Amino acid sequence: MNVLGGRIFNIEPGVAFNSLAPFLQPGDEVRLLPGVHIPFALADLRGARDNPIVIRGYQPEKEKPLPYVKGDLFSISLLRPQNVIVRDLLLGNSSGPTIYVDGSLAASPVVQETPWDSNLILTNLRIKQDGVADNQSGIYLRSMQKVDVSHIFIKGWNNSAIVLDNCKKVGVSQATLDTAKNLPQYRGVAIRSGCEDISCMYLSFGPKVQVAFELGVCDTTNPNPTEQNAQRPAQRIQISHNAALDCPCFISLGSIDNSTIANNSIIESTKFVWKADGTCGVPNHITFQNNLVTWVPGRIEKISSVAATIPPESIILQSNLWWSEELPIGFEIVGKPFGVEMTPQVFDVNPKVEMRKFVPVDEKARTFGWATSEDTNPPEAPKTPVESAKPSQKPS
Prior knowledge:
By secondary structure, this protein is mainly beta. The chain is built from two helices and 31 strands. The protein has helices spanning 225-229, 331-334; strands spanning 8-11, 29-32, 36-37, 40-43, 53-57, 68-70, 76-79, 84-92, 99-102, 116-128, 137-142, 144-155, 160-165, 168-178, 187-192, 196-205, 211-217, 234-240, 243-245, 249-253, 256-262, 265-267, 272-276, 284-289, 292-294, 302-306, 315-317, 321-323, 340-341, 353-354, 359-360. It has a 19-stranded parallel sheet that branches. It has a ten-stranded parallel sheet with strand order 4-7-9-11-13-15-17-20-23-26, with no helix packed on it. Strands 30-31 form a two-stranded antiparallel sheet. Strand 30 and strand 31 form a beta hairpin. 49% of the residues are buried.
């Protein structure tokens, strides 16, 4: 019996336990013992708010690795979980989403479903991907409500590190998304149109993630993606206190309203700081504030790449710090930040960023970027790649 008074089920490596799901009760704990485990799929787990069902890796020897769930199509699949905690596991090398959580009740299109009220916690999980697989993502949440994802380390992925599809009230925090060689790492976090009340805080991205945050993205495989998503923009999305290094594009904006991009460190951008191509809809009421943006002369194409259909008033510019050695003459090539300035932008302060945690050395710059509060403890910033010191090179 555990401290909550529930039963403990010890799972030996290689043992299937999918059939255990209907028998689990509030307070029960499923312990995956040290070793290599096969993928598991559990449906309709029902914990209680004060007495959740816990699925965890169990490793009594701290110096040894956590139990590992080897991927196939997935490593973990949860269908309609409620009041469940998943923690303390190594996962990886799947051909689809490594962790797939689905709140669907039927086979209806995801945009027509009410997200499942779950109270799910995913914490202290390490995901590693070595192989190329077009449909592989790290964590995929579909039609879920009330989910907390924290203290996650992802090393390598293909499509997206984290996908939120028709989700509400989801928090993602304290996560390190590190890139692996020979994998595309197309998106860091993809928040699809229709999602509401999502926060992403204290995420750090390794070099060359193609787009760190893709917000209001639609299903472009649908014949009419714009028509499908025009009525359901993502709303109230908060992207704050995140750090990205050597990233071709930090933010891609699609169908998204009433959202904030604040206190992020966007270091040595290599293509755009942000873009909005109009494919999935038009952003509205987006506030961009207290961000720290730097780039190496000759390595960035434009600060903002924006479709002609998007009016400047869609983007509200509060105070942000923009720095490159090529300023101010460089604005003739890369353009000034797109949007309506509510507060003057800062273009003349060299932040002298300390590259271990991206903390500005210059006092005038310390109100900008991801580490601006003394009572926070952001994860380690990504390491500076060797090639970042070569301004003439551009990532392919």
